[in-house]
Amino acid sequence: MNPNLVTALTGYLPYLVPEMLLGAAACVLFLGGTWRANRHLWGGVALVSLAMAALALSFNPLPHYESASVADASRYASPVMLDRLALLLRGVSLAGGLLLVLLCWDSMPENRAAEYHACLLLMVAGMGLCAAANELVTLFLALELTSIPTYLILYLGKSSTPNDGLDAAGQEAAMKYFLLSIFSSALTLFGFSYLYGMAGTTNLPGLADAFRRASDLSAATEPTVPSPLMGMGMVALVMVVAGLGFRLTAVPFHFYAPDVYQGTTTANAAVLAFVPKVAGFAALVRVLGFVLPNLSHEVFTATLSRPILREQLPILLWIVAAVTMTLGNLLGLLQDNLRRLLAYSSVAHAGYMLIGLAAAPRLLDAFDAPVDGVDAVFFYLVTYGAMTLGAFGVLQYLSSSGQKAETVDDLAGLSKTRPGLALIMVLFLFSLIGIPFTAGFMGKFLLFAGALDVPPSQETTFWPPDQRTLFVGLALLAALNAAIGGWYYLRIAAVMYLRDPSPLAAAAEGKRSWPTLAAVGLCGALTLGIGINPDPLKRAVQSAVPRLTDMVSVSAVEH
Amino acid sequence: MSDVRSFLWLIPALPLTAAVFIASFGPRWLRRHSHWPCILATAGACVVAFMAFHSVHDGVSHFVSAHHGGAAEGEAAPDPHPHKTAVYYEWFKVGEAGTGHGVDVGIALNADALSTTMALMVTFIGTLIAVYSAGYMRGDEGYARFFAEVSLFVFMMTTLVLADNFALLYLGWEGVGLSSYLLIGFWFAKPAAAAAARKAFLVTRIGDVGLFLGILLLWSSFGHHLDYQNIFQSVKAAEEAKTLDYGLLTTACLLLMCGAVGKSAQFPLHVWLPDAMEGPTPVSALIHAATMVTAGVYLVARCTPLFMLAPNAQVVVATLGAITMVLAALIALTQNDLKRVLAYSTLSQLGYMFVALGSGVASAGKAFVTFAVVAAMFHLFTHAFFKALLFLSAGSVMHAMGHVIDMRRFSGLRKVLPHTHWTFLCGAFTLAGFPLLSGFWSKDAILDAAWTAGHRADHYAAWYLVLWFAGLATAGLTAFYTFRAYFLTFWGEVRIPHEAFEHHHGHGEHGGHSDRDGHGETPRLESPPVMTVPLMILSVFALGIGAALGPTGLFEHFVAHTPGFPPPETESLNWSMMLLSTLVGLGGIGVAYWMYVRQPELPGRLADAAKGFYQLSLNKFHIDELYELFVLKPLAGFTTFARIFDLNVLDGLVDLTGYMLRWLGFLARPVQNGLVQFYALAMVLGMTVFLIALLLKL
Amino acid sequence: MDFALSTYYPIFLFLLVVVGFAVSALVATHLLGPSRRTPVKQMPYESGMDPIGDARQHFDVKFYLIAILFLVFDVELLFLYPWAAMYPWASGPGEPSSYLPGEFQSLVFWEVLVFLLSVVVAYIYAWRRGVFRWR
Questions:
Q1: Rg over CA atoms, chain B
Q2: How far apart are CA A359 and CA A288, in angstroms?
Q3: Contacts of C114 (CB under 8 A, 6+ apart)
Q4: What is the ipTM of this complex?
Q5: pLDDT in the model for residue A159
């Protein structure tokens, strides 16, 4: 048998040790939890296993292929793609897992702690695999690996005593999430099956090649008539985007988010706000083929140079981004429940991130654009994670120390009862608004810069307005949205600072949840650190996402 | 003296440190000593600002002496626009700035004539107001919070004026907006204060959107720079190469102007400023009279090199300024709230500055820009002193009267508040443009600028003459309403609201003795020295600074050396203009005196009661009626109209935006109906819509 | 390839045996076993629940747990069967031993063991959590 193929099919295993470790640790936690019920013990085990996974990842970060043919074989046969993007996102998911374990430490009943942490570890593994997927099958399995533990934690986190069932809201939340999530998974899978049926392969680079051949063929034979294969491909991609849109909370697939966030615990809402977003964006970027490193530039640009992807995909994502951020912010204005408000906020932020994806194919023409679109998305994903987890962490800390933190009014006078916590909450809120010197500002800046740099279209467009006008309009809409969003975030800040605490809140002096506090502190440091010195993260995402324009310009020099 | 760059950063850093320090330790440990860090930091910043100012001034005098006496041999010709830019930190850099789609934002401060003058003014007045506040705010629940927020404001304001690029300017711009929001809403338990804070924040934010877009437009159109000098240079280069897109430049200038209009409360975004008087009076003095509201003027002055190439934008600036100037003066005539009179007067004076900024037209190669912009800056400078003085004096009145500020509730306070009376009088004379006082010189310069523009401008010359006339008329109105307020407050029968005594009873340890009987011998309710001493210092400056800097040309010759300003044209003093404005000003004062003093409330007549009380009353009735009929009725009609327009139409428009958004949200709300079946259906429908849309396009 | 009925003879045989076994077993029990009719035995589902009545009644969750556990092992079997069929058997020299290339044999062996282990973990977990304790 071809030794290159053998390498491709087996050589990746040592690089997946972190995920294997996490899986093994999850098994240990599941079993161990049946003997001992102790949140500190099992939380500690989860932290140690995350640390070990991180260690394993740092020992074996990127594979080195001896020759181009080995690399080529890996690209077309290996179920995982171990490139820099995968490395970045696996690192991000490990870091996010660390934050989530700390944040959720005191959120669940003592006898559920082990299972809860096991679920978190499985989700972390799932996120990492999503980012590394090179196969539709791997991708789907990885997506399910993040989804199924989510169903579990929706049940595990809520009940307070062993025999105490879920309350009605919790049940409703868990059920809604479960039903709609499997529904969206089915949509994704349906789309995948179309892709497989058309291309005869589940391998992502292979799919890209198939599309290229199809479009070249139709361009060569009948340039004016679009190929039916491309049309079917578009249908498949719409289904995939719809299925993944559920995970990104993109409108109109966002409906579950407010209900579920409100019904479940704060810690669970934090998990839901972070994990599916990372997995969804990683999957979307992989499937839509924005990131195909090690590919020669011909494959890449040809894939995207055909009208089907160049013209219609950006429009689709443009519409989804515009509707998502606007609806999220408008409905966010009306909310009083904190988790519901943050749910709409997470919808709105998904909209901002989609701007980057929408602009990415168009930015191929902008040789001197400072951002690629995709790098901005992942930059924003990290900052979003830090600030959203931080905000949820503050709420979780409050509720675990016995203070009610359900509605905006419950935070009244927080600056008087807990000044430090109020200050750090304001930091997160400012970052969510996008005020300079916070991470959120840099994230928004890079996304908007991408949209503003879209060059005017050279060829005729199918849509009357010029692409540049369209995307400048999108950036303006996003700026307007950021202003609307500022209103409801500042409202929380105003309630914390300008109102007097209710006597109940002032009297609540429960136990301090140090791990949650540590998570909040880490998020705060991250939010402020990225805001003040964004360069390391920016370099990281830019090296993770190969410069598409670099590839094209290199080819131009070569020719 | 060492390089200005080595200490320039201290100007914003000191107040920031104080803000963090007070916020961290104030409520727990400093408590009623919370004012010390703020005062010390602001005073320190003032000293540093003076050093920076001095350093730039050295550069200017070096140039002037070299220019006149010939440069020494072997020495490079001195810079006509001495400035030092200190880049402290490169915050982020994307791409290559200037060469493509790059952007380069750093914390860079800039010391030149304009910025150091502003910084000096801000920190100096800030120090005096911080001292004053230590007395005014004593015993307040949020004492520490107040000084933390004031320090934060000084930090943001100095950042704004010292910034070397638009990004940092924008940071300071939003920062002062935030501090202003916090300080207007300082007594947030009062619904009016909370509403005013929100209104101020929202209305200025409308302008900020314009500023933001303007910055983006400048960045994208003129070489992807964010720092002033590079933008100005690329615009200048484009102009010299005849490739400048004037439409684009005018749009950018108008967008910047939107920000300035919001922040400086110009028509039609002026509605927030009178409401902002709900904040503590030192805040009104510092933020809403002396410093923050002048940020818009500063911005336009800073962008002079852009505006001078866009005469269409300039005429819009001048016109909006003139509308605000007249409208606010007319409204101020009928206000009964002392602070509101001053607030409308601030609007009106800011309008003057905008008229001057807009009058800096470049005509047929003869650059007369610098003269006009310097006139605006000069008025800004003197106005900061005398308006802060007036506000603080009003605050002193309010403090003594137990937080009563309605002029109908007190009168004849001359004897009751002797120090405050004198300081208020100084401020009033200066504001009214009494000859040889500060306001006289600066207002005269503005009128001169508008007059010159009316004769020299290539476009809109006649219109500038109209604006000049409006300015002259407003000068008369200004003198009138200022002295109306003065006479109503300090002259006439001694009337003191009962709150004054309750107030002093509660805080018996300061503010003189408390005489429970307001109708016996005149009680002394004067504010403590910690409040009156800053007032006296301000009085001296308010009276003298104009005469010291104006006719001597010191101010003009210094500020004109700001980088980017065209070389100034020497202007001789316009004696006839001075005479005219003196007459108008004195006329206004005279009318006010006649109507409010020579009338029934005249104390002399009261003493001379032999003529009979009935007759007096009758006279009052008649003259009041005449006054009503011939002066007030028409004016009141117009003011009422202006106010109704203001409250109903402009306020309504502002509120409408907010309601529209919420209403849109309500429209979208029923979709979120909680039914899981519907959610699934919506997902499928959404997907189907996309599919159909895409397939139809195939 | 042409259709050849002979290819399907084993399947027909299999079907025949299955049907024959079922029928003969039913017939044999009917004939051989004692037949005492009681009301309980007359019920359609003797060891289940009364099928007549309101359909909206609470089910004991234990039924689900057992069903899920059954599913786990059912799926396990589903995976094991192709694995067993693909795995190389000791066969004569020169014959292709299996469809699985030699390089993957040990890998696939250990993979399935890991899979079995994970099912065992699920089993132990269910056991410890008392799924098998009926009451």
A1: 27
A2: 13
A3: none
A4: 0.84
A5: 54
Span A122-141, mean pLDDT? 94
* Residue B141 CB burial class (10 angstroms; 0-12, 13-18, ≥19): exposed
| Beta pairing partners, B87 | B108
Interface test with B, best of A255, A334, A487 (most B CBs within 10 A): A255
Round to whole Å and give the CA distance between A406 and A277. 23
Residue B78 binned pLDDT confidence (cut-offs 50, 70, 90): low
Least confident of A479-488, B624-633, C113-122: B624-633
Q: Which long-range contacts (CB under 8 A, 24 or more apart) does A409-413 make?
A: A409/A336, A409/A495, A410/A338, A410/A502, A410/A505, A411/A338, A411/A492, A411/A495, A411/A496, A412/A495, A412/A496, A412/A499, A412/A500, A412/A501, A412/A502, A412/A505, A413/A496, A413/A499, A413/A500, A413/A501, A413/A502, A413/A505, A413/A506
The residue ranges of DSSP E strands in chain C, in sequence order, are none
* Nearest chain C Cα distance for residue A23, angstroms: 10
Give chain C's mean pLDDT: 80
Q: Quote the CA–CA distance of A146 and A282 in Å, as a whole number.
A: 12
Residue with tokens 């490739």: B243
Q: Residue B122: what are its φ and ψ, rounded to 5°? A: -60, -45
Q: Cα(A29)–Cα(A41) distance, rounded to whole angstroms?
A: 10
Residue A264 has pLDDT above 70, yes or no: yes
Contact B438, B537 (CB under 8 A): no
- Which of A1, A13, A30 is the closest to C103 by Cβ? A1
- Among the ranges A203-207, A498-502, B128-132, which has the highest mean pLDDT value? B128-132
User: Percent of chain A at pLDDT above 70?
Assistant: 84
Three-class secondary structure of residue B108 per DSSP: strand
- Residue of C64, C103, C106 to mutate when probing chain A, most A C-beta within 10 A: C103
Average pLDDT over residues B88-98: 63
Whether the per-residue pLDDT at B444 is higher than 80: the answer is yes
CB nearest A242 (choices: B665, B671, B683): B683
- What whole-number distance in Å separates Cα of residue A96 and Cα of residue A526? 12
pLDDT at A296 over 90: no
d(CA C81, CA C102): 19
Radius of gyration of chain A (CA): 23
- Distance CA(B577)–CA(B582), nearest Å, equals 8
pLDDT winner (highest mean) among A18-22, B183-187, B686-690, C112-116? A18-22
Regarding chains B and C, contact by 3 or more CB pairs under 8 A is answered as no
CA A330 from chain center: how many Å? 22
Cβ atoms of A348 and A329 within 8 Å: the answer is yes
Instruction: For residue A180, give the nearest of A122, A126, A254 by alpha carbon.
Output: A254
pLDDT bracket for residue A352 (50, 70, 90): very high
Query: What confidence score (pLDDT) does residue A349 get?
Result: 95
Tell me whether residues A35 and C118 touch, CB distance under 8 A: no
* A30 closest CB neighbour out of C107, C117, C125: C125
Is the separation of the CB atoms in B311 and B459 below 8 Å?
Answer: yes
Q: What is the pLDDT of residues B154-195, one digit of tens each?
A: 999 999 999 888 888 988 898 898 888 888 888 888 888 887
Tell me the H-state helices in A133-227.
136-156, 168-199, 204-221
Residue boundaries of the structural domains of chain C: 5-42
For C59, the 3-state DSSP assignment is coil
C-alpha distance from residue A501 to each of A419, A453, A507 (Å)? 12, 47, 10
| Residue A362 identity | R
Residue whose pair of structure tokens reads 């137990």 in the numeric block: B402
CA distance B124 to B119: 8
For residues A326 and A254, the answer to whether their CB atoms sit within 8 Å is no
